[in-house]
Amino acid sequence: MERYGSYAPFLCVKADESYAKLGIKGTGKDLGSRALLEKAPALYWYPSEVDVSIRPGWFYHAEQDNQVKSLAHLTDIYFKSVGYNSVLLLNIPPDRRGLIHENDANRIKELASYVKKHLPTIRWKRGMLHGQPKPVSRKCIN
Length: 142
Prior knowledge:
The protein has four helices and four strands. The chain has helices at 13-22, 34-39, 71-81, 102-118; strands spanning 49-53, 87-91, 124-125, 128-129.
C-alpha cells in the first residue's frame, strides 16, 4: 500500500480516486466489508462528528430559555455519539450578555455529573484517556 502525505483526510485526492475505482459512494450498501478492503490500494480514515445544539436552534433566542434539551435527551445523544466512537460537538450558544445562560449551564453540569457517576472507569488526563497511546497526526495513514 502506498503512503500519502496530505495533512488532513479530506485533502487526500487519492482517496476519491480509490473510492471511484472501487465503486464506493456515501450511500452505498458496502462501505467497508473485508472483501472491499482487500481490493483497496490504501485505507483512509475519516473521523465521525456529531454536531447538535443544546437548544432547538444553533443560536441563542430568549424564547428558547425553557427549551434546553433534557438530561435524558443529552445522555441519549452522548451514548449514540461518543459511545459509538464519534466526536460530540455540543453547541452551547452565548446569550445577549455574552454568557452561557443559566439553564444551559445547569444542564451541562447535570450531564457532566451523570457521565462522571455512570462512567467511573474512564480516566482522563489532560484531554487524553490515561494510559492510551498519543493520537496519530492528521496525515493520511496507510
